[in-house]
């Protein structure tokens, strides 16, 4: 699939694990004793980073030993955090091979390999049989998904009746035409933003109900502004998410903020349910 290759090359150029490992050493973190908390500044690879995952987790009904699916799990920070916090098991899938490799190596480093399993797959075609998971989520992935109906139908298929599904993303704002580069696209290629109302329709078409939408724009904007200010003062930490954003990291973050300010994007968190049988 042409889109899949383009998107994975955008996200995962080079040896991602070595980049993270080198940054750990530079930050004075001992990789042989690293903890889930210490990895958090890098491995929650989405707007607002770890605080956004924590806030989402606060809203999710996850029980011990439940099986949860992370679609587009990146380098696996959210999966490891949920596994540690709730004692659940998390299966992650991601389209970007260097992220999957890094995710599994990081999971081994923190000793969570019996609870977190990550493999290469496309969220538009999940490698799981029906009704396997007690809940699923997808943080900042759908900006790159060409066929949302199929993506949500696949999530619906593998969830058990009554399971939750959560997603966070940058929807398309009323002004449209986002500035590039942004974290999910260098020049607009591989970007498929739609207004939140269309995402809700697509979720509903897949069968989801009780769809709750929260506007996260101001929270993201505040986080982007503080990252921009820290970069301006030359105070970005050695171990931070910018190491995964490549050479145009500063520009991507500035554009992500400006797109929200100009209502070109509309960030949201959405939580819904597969109806109980
Ligand atoms: C911004 S990162 C978010 C990673 C992770 N969800 C997190 O929050 O830390 C976006 C991720 O979506 C993945 N992705 C994009 N399209 C995908 C698809 N169709 N199926 C699976 N993963 C996808 C990318 O490879 C990348 O790892």
Comma- or semicolon-separated keywords:
Rossmann fold; binds S-adenosylmethionine; 277 residues; SAM-dependent methyltransferase; SAM-dependent_MTases_sf; S-adenosylmethionine-dependent methyltransferase activity; alpha/beta; 7-stranded mixed beta sheet; 41% helix; 10 helices
Describe this structure in words.
The chain is 41% helix and 19% strand. By secondary structure, it is an alpha/beta fold. The protein has one domain (2-121, 129-273): 3-Layer(aba) Sandwich (Rossmann fold), CATH 3.40.50. Helix 7 (148-158) links the parallel strand 4 (133-139) and strand 5 (159-172). It is globular, with a radius of gyration of 18 Å. Bound molecules: S-adenosylmethionine. S-adenosylmethionine is lined by residues 7-8, 11, 44-46, 72-74, 77-78, 93-96, 99, 122-124, 139-141, 144-145.
- With helices defined by DSSP (H or I, 4 residues minimum), what is the helix count? 10
Total number of strands: 7
Ligands: S-adenosylmethionine
The computed structural class is alpha/beta
Mean pLDDT reading: 96
Terminal Cα span: 35 Å
CATH homologous superfamily identity: Vaccinia Virus protein VP39
CATH architecture: 3-Layer(aba) Sandwich
* SSE string, helices as H and strands as E: HHHHEHEHEEHEHEHHE
Low-confidence stretches at least 5 residues in length (pLDDT < 50)? none
Number of structural domains: 1
Task: Give the overall shape, derived from the CA principal axes.
Answer: globular
CATH overall fold name: Rossmann fold
* Sheet with most strands: strand arrangement: 3-2-1-4-5-7-6
